[in-house]
Amino acid sequence: MTVEPTTLQLLWFCLVAVLWIGFLVLEGFDFGVGMLIPHLGRNDKERRVLVNTIGPLWDGNEVWLITAGGAMFAAFPGWYATLFSAMYMPFFLILVALIIRGLAFEYRAKRPEQSWKYRWDRGASIGSFMVALIFGIGFSNFVIGMPVDVAEGRASVHVFTGGFWSLFHPFAVLGGVVFVALFLFHGAIFIALKTRGEIHQRAKAFAARIGLGVIGGGGAWLLWSNLAYGIGVSGWILALVAAGGLVLAWYMVRIDRDGWAFVGTAVATAVIAIGIFLRMFPDLGFDNSAASQPLNIVTASASPMTLGIMTWTAVFFIPIVLAYQAWTYWVFRRRLSTKNIPDDHPEPAPIA
């Protein structure tokens, strides 16, 4: 017998989806900039400009990830437990990559040697790449449906029945590549939006090149997704909107409309994420075909009292957090160039 979800369960599934969508849109350009630091920056001053474009923003953007994970844990503990046990190694690699990335931003200026700074810039690039790739593979697996079954002797506990290598389905690998390319496109447009001079021109040229690859690869992923794992007409509409956003972004880059280009990649990222979460409803991205009791937003949910307390807490705190983050973006809205970067201290002479 199928039990219909309650209003609070539907509300919190939507809120979790919104938190993940916000993370992918905001941290998406963040990861893109991180990957491009050692490649678009030809010298230390230019790399410092790239770091400064996201310097006031990157840690605030990561709060969306922390909040999304916390909301999953509190609202749907069954979802959280099954997902984190199924993807323990990928999530461990994400954690390592985020640590490396954070250390890179904080430690690159601690010593004056250029080799020291460049190594940390490479660390930021590699860490950003790893997170983008793993998230792309992970979300693609949610579209496919990760196989689960009830634990032996514990009907209320679900376990992932696939292995580590089962996560690398060709569709999932393509999703990982598409996420990396999409975030590079998103990040390059953000750099163009936030900079002047040579870096601006270099970012625009890169965005125009990578944009064509994203349109082709993203279109293939969206087509495969709807043909093999589609959700009907709504899935095709979202795919068309996402493709339109990517085309709009590429065209706006070509005609020097950086703001509209950024809107295009932001809309495309958000719409792709919306499609993924619609595909995950109500089974939370799991394949329950072998399970005697399904794992979905009803069976994975916390108690009504817990959801009620969380709802009132969210009503109070979410507007405060959103207002603070909007204020941060407004304060640091100016474009940057190497003229805004003071000369660094010269490297100390070697001791004889």
Q: Output the radius of gyration.
A: 21 Å
Secondary-structure element order, N to C: HHHHHHEEHHHHEH
Biggest β-sheet: count, sense, barrel?
A: 3 strands, mixed
Strand order of the largest sheet: 2-1-3
| SS-derived structural category | mainly alpha
Strand content: under 5%
Helix content: over 70%
Categorize the overall geometry. globular
**Strands, count:** 3
- Distance between the ends: 82 Å
Average pLDDT reading:
92
Number of helix segments? 11
How does this structure look, described?
By secondary structure, the protein is mainly alpha-helical. It has eleven helices and three strands; from the N terminus they run ααααααββααααβα. A three-stranded mixed β-sheet has the order 2-1-3. β1 and β2 form a beta hairpin. α7 runs antiparallel to α8, α7 packs antiparallel against α10 and α8 runs antiparallel to α9. The protein starts with 6 loop residues before the first helix and ends in a 21-residue tail after the last helix. The model has no long low-confidence stretch (mean pLDDT 92).
